[in-house]
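Narrative summary of target 7.
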Amino acid sequence: MAKVSVIVPVYNVEDYLDKCLNTLVNQTLQDIEIIVVNDGATDGSQKIIDKYAKEYSMVKSYVKENGGLSDARNFGMKYATGEYIGYIDSDDFVELDMFETLYGKAVEGDYDIVECNLRHTYPDAEDIEIGEHIQDKKEMLMFGRSVVWNKIYKREWLEGTKVIFPKGCIYEDVEFFLKLVPHIRKYAYVEPASVHYVQRSSSINNMSSAKTLDILKILDHIYDYYKENGYYEEYEEALEFFFARILLCSSFHRMCGVVDKKERSRVLKMNYDKLITTFPNWKANPVLKRNDVKNVKFMRSVNGVTYKIYSLCFPLIFKMRSKVMSK
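Modeled conformation, tokenized:
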């Protein structure tokens, strides 16, 4: 059994893949396996994968028809033998001691999940994102970092939850993480910022289009999961706050970037309608009232009238800001 299995989905990233795989095969942790899933790439990615698979026995190469990021991760999980599982996107790269640090902490306390900090890596700059050490599961649901690639997960525990990634949607990390939260027994953190989250304009996370409506599907999946599995009553207040934070902050921000005015108006309306139909009394949420974390004051200012005003003003502000930044 490997100590850690790292699953790397690949789709048309030949310009980034070599750097990603190089940082994985040179990890200081011994007994690591790297499961590379070619998700129907049409560029030269497989040649790069073949080079590493031939040179390093730890690299396992698999090829499948294109099904998207979630499908590739789920596919890779079936072949993982490690005590712990990690996920790295093929356009990112990591520090060479990342998995030794995470695994050392994991076995120290038999943790289900261990998380590290991360770096936003730009072509000519970099900044470090430091997360809070949250232990309360309701706080984790509301404020935890849902990205999967700065963590390792105990494989036996993960398989026992039966949680997988939702196929065909963006925001897949959000659903995966929130479905895991009720199952968590022990969660730990390490301080190093070991993942380089490479910022590129063509990545899925930088797309402002009607595809942003996927978040509504993801939220439906989460809501139904908590209802169907008997978690809703315990987590209702936290879920309500989470829905408000996602729909009024990150989702709203992305939808304001939809270029077509008519389409932008449509998705923004659907965004707010999702909040008020799922949680009609969201404004009375106790966490919203007592908490002053980032964006909460803005959230408290939102109602049916101000949301329409913001929906007209914010796209103009974003457009002006983009022009300034492009100069």
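Residues 232-255 form the longest helix (24 residues).
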